Amino acid sequence: MKSIIKIASVSALLLTSACVAPVGPVEVTRFHLPEAQSRASGPITVVAAPGEDGASIEFATYAAAVRRELQRIGYAPADVPGGQIAELGISRAMLSPQRRRGPVSVGIGGGTGGFGSGVGVGVGIDLSGPPPEQVETEMRVTIRDRVSGQAIWEGRSRFMVKADSPMAETSLGASRLAEALFKAFPGQSGETIYVE
Length: 196
Fold this sequence. Notes:
By secondary structure, the chain is of the alpha+beta class. Helices cover 23% and strands 39% of the residues. The chain is built from three helices and nine strands. Strand 5 and strand 6 (116-125) form a beta hairpin.
C-alpha cells in the first residue's frame, strides 16, 4: 500500500512540474541617460504607448506587472500623470517554424570486398510531425519626463515559447518580461543581455 501511495505521489509531482514549462532566457536591451538611476523616484504613471489599446484586459495585465517592478526599483505609482510617465507597448506574434528538410530521406551505400560487392539502400521517414507553433512576446517601455517629453530610459524584453506553453499566457508572460526588463535597473546602456 505504501509503494502505491509513493508511486501516486511521484506521478502527481511529475505532472505538476510538467505544467510549469520553463521559458528560455529573456532577451533584454536598454538605453538610458546617465541620470536614469538618480531619477528613479517620485510619482510615475504607466500609459499606453502610441498605437496601443490602453483599455484592453491584456494591456491592463502588462501594465500591472510594469507598475510592480517600477515600485520595486523606487518609483511611487500614481493614478494621474505625475513627474514621469512610462509608455508601455506590447507585441505578440505567432510563428510557425518550417521543417528544415523533407520528412523522407534516402541513403545509398556500397562496398566491395574479397568476395564481391554490394549496394544498400536505406529509407528514413520522420514521423514527428511539423515543428510546434511558437509565440514571441515583446514588451517595450519608455520612461519620459512628463513636462519635457524627454526619454530618460527605454528598454525592451522578449522571449519565445511554444504556443501551448503556460508561459504563452498573458498573466505569466507579463510578469516574466517585466521582471527581466527592470532587473539591475537601469542596466548597461546599449547592451543586450539574456536573463534566465
